UniProtKB/TrEMBL annotation:
It is found in: Cytoplasm. One of its GO terms (cellular component) is cytoplasm. Residues 5-183 form the 3-hydroxyacyl-CoA dehydrogenase NAD binding domain. Belongs to the 3-hydroxyacyl-CoA dehydrogenase family. The record marks H142 as: Important for catalytic activity. InterPro entries: 3-OHacyl-CoA_DH, 3-OHacyl-CoA_DH_CS, 3-OHacyl-CoA_DH_NAD-bd, 3HC_DH_C, 6-PGluconate_DH-like_C_sf, 6PGD_dom2, NAD(P)-bd_dom_sf. It is an enzyme of class 1 (oxidoreductase). Homodimer. Pfam families: 3HCDH, 3HCDH_N. Its EC number is 1.1.1.45. This is L-gulonate 3-dehydrogenase.
Amino acid sequence: MTRRKIAIVGSGLIGRSWAMLFAGAGYHVNLFDVTQELVENAIKDIEQQLHALAASGLLRGNLSAAEQLTLITGTKTLKECVEGALYVQECVPENLELKKKVYAELDELADDDTIIASSTSCILPSLFSENLKHRSNVLVAHPVNPPFYVPLVELVPAPWTAPEVVVKARKIMEELGQKPVSLSREIPGFALNRIQYAILNECWFLAQEGILDVADIDAVMSHGLGPRYAFMGPLETAHLNAEGMENYCERYGETIYNVSKTLGPVTRFEGEHLQKVNQQLLDQVPLEKLQEKRAWRNNCLASLAKLKQNIDKEQTD
């Protein structure tokens, strides 16, 4: 890419991770938020994260932490942040009216060929881009939180997003070392959250019915499905667990169908049961320990990512 300027709009946890990813790939990153204090605090936190990652050998990219930090600049205005950018990553809160307002401003400031991507986890891109003059340049690039440590990015086009924009966005994500997946069209929840919500619904049902407590339900994933799914998805897992997928379905298809009919109903996560689940989780991780646990999670994810990179390299060598 000849233009190397990236605009990050929103300096929260997701925006900071995006800034680090782009800087690690050598891009010049402009960061904007509604107050200068938010931007300054974000850059201070990014500096701490980069140096901590370097010290633990988990820093991404070929540049040092200090070199990456020099590529990240806070801006005082949205215009300064966006003008001349190759790519804009919007990271404002999940509020449709706010996104409509932000995208109306971005539409006036962005160049005709600037890609404008949203980090939204569930708002369809058509809902905030329909009336834009640059609507063909808008798509969703939904990362997994935190994107610096988990590489998946869902690329979701609106009905009017130009196909070449999705292709360019995918190339940029790959350059960052992320793992993009391209949806053919928008769908509520995209792909990751549709799968995640199906899992959460059944976990909620098992807890509500008293089949397992919260810790044991989470253990089913962290010590059962999770380790396996860290290296291959459920479809390839099924393919390997028999003599191919067709044989798997011959063996287990009827069982899957019969069990699936007994799965818990779609429910609302609220009320008395929410209080019980919440208390069990607070007993495991009190609120004052959340940040410490997040840091532990991030280190685990970074170490796993490094292991997966080495395994992937062995597969291609």
